[in-house]
Amino acid sequence: MVASEIALKLTRPILFGAGAFSLLWACGQSTGPSPGSAGSLGSAAGAVAQAGATALAGTSGSATGGSVAGGGMAGGTGGAGAPAGGVAAGGSSVGGNVAVAGAAGTLGGGGAAGVAGTSAGTAGTGGAAVSTGCNGAPLCWDFEEGAIPQGFTPWRSTPSPATGELLVDNTRPYGGSKFSLHAKDLVGGPQHTLKYVLPANFGPVMWGRLRLYTTPARPMAHAGFFNARYPKPGQPDNAPENQLNWYEVASYTQAYMSIFHPPWPPGFPEDVQVSDTQLVLDKWTCVEWLFDGKNDADATQAALPKMWLDGTELAWPQHFTYSEPAGANPPFRDKVGNFTVIELGIVTWQDVPTPTSWWIDDVHIGTTRIGCQ
């Protein structure tokens, strides 16, 4: 297992561009095109913010570290080639072909309505507040525009021989929605993702949740589906990738996994936690995370990541350090000033032999717990 993991790593880095997007999106009624009029990305598609969203008070809980156990590998870290592709007829392209059904067209511009009726509440258990919908000042996306949401830009798109594509389509939307983000038929060691630069002064604590559907097989490979990055101490908020630490939620050896990474390159040593809960297949699940870069429980380091599946916190019976060469100490987890960049999509670091698809929907991030309601 170890040899195959190392042999199949991808090692070509991409640096983030400077600049930031400051528009806050709220999940709500779509102003995007109907399935018969999807086309190229134009100016911003509007979205209606949820009125009356409740912002609950309270501070985030902190994760504990645990001991580092030897053995096992989470797969090497690395960047991928520059995103390719453009806009194809009948859909919006994300580093490849995208097929939102219908004739080619242009996704027109629209306004974004404000968030109304926020109110204070009480803290939940463990110092974490829980509410439904967007709370505090988070961002959320439900892909109901039928195209890549405003502010996201293509990032990774692995070239041949790895295959697959990332698109917004109506093949498996969550709940009563119309569209979702679809990582389609990934095989080999594919990486297909989007990047979003967060608004300034996001803060050092990130709660998040997304809905995830995977079929037909649980990959043994390290398959990341969300990460958030922040500059090392002394670096500006628009620092390049090689100055950004990052937290990741993923699966590995068919189970859920979380990782703290130092900057790429080299991206390791990694602080790896692997759950004993298998990745759920053929069913929508709610995956939550807490990246606590403030960590009041430790004056020196940021906390390790925490994850929840359908409201139940995951345990981490495997906790180890991955490095090349082996034998390094765990990385020092610098405290977070502000999270600055997120990455969404699927990044695999080893071979995926069976064509596998992931759907992602109902993505929320904020500074207090959002929950799965």
Distance between the termini: 39 Å
Mean pLDDT: 73
CATH class: Mainly Beta
Q: Largest beta sheet, briefly?
A: 8 strands, antiparallel
CATH architecture grouping: Sandwich
Describe the structure in your own words:
The chain is an all-beta fold. The chain has a single domain (2-366), classed as Jelly Rolls. The protein is 2% helix and 32% strand. It contains one helix and 16 strands. The chain has one helix spanning 2-7; strands at residues 139-141, 152-157, 163-169, 180-188, 191-197, 205-215, 223-231, 244-252, 255-261, 270-278, 285-292, 306-309, 312-313, 318-322, 341-348, 352-366. The strands form two sheets. Strands 1, 3, 4, 6, 11, 12, 13 and 16 form an eight-stranded antiparallel β-sheet that branches. It is globular and about 45 Å long. The N and C termini lie far apart (39 Å).
Give the arrangement of secondary structure elements.
Blueprint: H1 2-7, E1 139-141, E2 152-157, E3 163-169, E4 180-188, E5 191-197, E6 205-215, E7 223-231, E8 244-252, E9 255-261, E10 270-278, E11 285-292, E12 306-309, E13 312-313, E14 318-322, E15 341-348, E16 352-366
Antiparallel strand pairs: 1-16, 2-5, 3-4, 4-16, 5-15, 6-11, 6-16, 7-8, 7-15, 8-9, 9-10, 10-14, 11-12, 12-13
Quick overview:
The chain has 373 residues and is an all-beta fold. The protein has one helix and 16 strands.
Which features does this protein show?
373 residues, mainly beta, Jelly Rolls, eight-stranded antiparallel beta sheet, globular, disordered N terminus
